[in-house]
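Limitations
The structure tokens in this dataset are predictions for the assembled complex, not deposited experimental models. Users should treat interface geometry with appropriate caution, especially where small molecules or nucleic acid strands are included. An illustrative entry is reproduced here so readers can see what is and is not provided.
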Amino acid sequence: MRDVFEVSRYDAAGRLGELEVPRAGVTVETPALLPVVNPHLQTVAPAALESEFGAEALITNSYVLYGSDEFREPALAAGLHEVLDFSGAVMTDSGSFQLAEYGDIDVTTAEILDFQERIGSDIATPVDVPTPPDADRERAEADLATTRERIDLVSATDTGEMLVTAPVQGSTYPDLREAAAEHAAASGLDLFPVGAVVPLMNEYRYADLVAVVAAAKRGLPESAPVHLFGAGHPMMFALAVALGCDLFDSAAYAIYARDDRYMTVRTTEHLEDLSYLPCSCPVCAEYTPEDLRGRADDERERLLARHNLHVSFAEMRRVKQALRRGDLLELVEARARGHPAMVDGYRALLDHADRLERTDPVSKGTFFYLSADSPRRPEVRRHHDRLDRLEPDGESVLLTEGNPADGFDECWRVAPPFGPYPPALSDAYPLTAQVPDRLDDAAYEWAADGVRRLVAAHPATEFTLAHDGWPASALDRVPDRVELWTLGET
Ligand SMILES: [Zn+2]
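Predicted assembly:
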């Protein structure tokens, strides 16, 4: 793996970074969205992707160019950048999609890699074998063995300045994904696409998507740039970035437009169902749904594609701003509330809170408690781990939601969902959290777990918990040896 990727800031496992693309002589800010360009159907011209949308990189299919009477020779003679009229980084796919779709392609990995090099691709891809979700394990293993051979072949080839990807396959088997990722990382190649996840996204299986990506991430070093292949719907950008995905590509903007489908960050709408356009991009500012429906097919397709791109790039900017401000998990949670399948995705993400915690900054913006899922965030886990190490001073300690009281060696505060903390930490992240007045029981239960951690770590200390009417489900979790006071009743 060449040293081309640098992370400048983390939030959960999400990161702002820079990918240096030596052959293009450009640096791409990540997370980045690479629009997919079909040379034969340029719904939005590559030059416009650059000037109107700020795309720093795009992806096109070298196998399509290889088999094209129209593009093959010009691409070989003048190079991809010239043919596409695009000055950013150009990544090329290899025909794996066609292989998965039609079962066979008439080119070898060595041939297509050489072709990608000759047409001036900046980031090339071997012909991996995408195994769909839920495939037989036997098939997933056999496909993986072929992908490994091809990765080994390209890693033994001198590709000069051109970066080369090592795709991670393995269907919906987390152990195969993890092993595939370890092999890919050991290949010395540069970028790591997680492949064959489009069916999961099309079926709204976001929890399974999280499991697949998390498994791939376990097998890769932290410094590896990760591409989520075929992930082009803005509703899942925040979730996938929080897991540690750096690059995305969207063919969806064009494919959806062809079917009159209109993307939003919550869902996909059909143009015929829209009475209003809930967006302020240049297309939606200028047209009504009625206007769009009245346009000729190709013009309507172009307009919808531009809207779909605007909403996608805007969401990626929102994700980057959240990364910079340190409230990416708040954005993930907001997106989770837009669709039940995204709730599953968010909850699956929080199943990996221990991994998210490793790179999560110690201090960020203000923790917003937004739902009963919020206590499962890595910040709460980290505070509980810290309780094992914090030392109360003295033999009797009051943990209180109210004011300090006499008769104790020390008074600590206690706050849902974190639990107890010494007053000196009051102004420290995440204890400055904003929580609603009407908290759910989960917040108190997590605070009670914090009390339990502290009490377990100090068997010789006497604890009293003064709480403001915690529910029984929380008080049941407090160890019996803790004396309980209800504030307002004493
Ligand atoms: Zn719009």
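Some entries come with short summary sentences. For this one: The first helix runs from residue 46 to 51.
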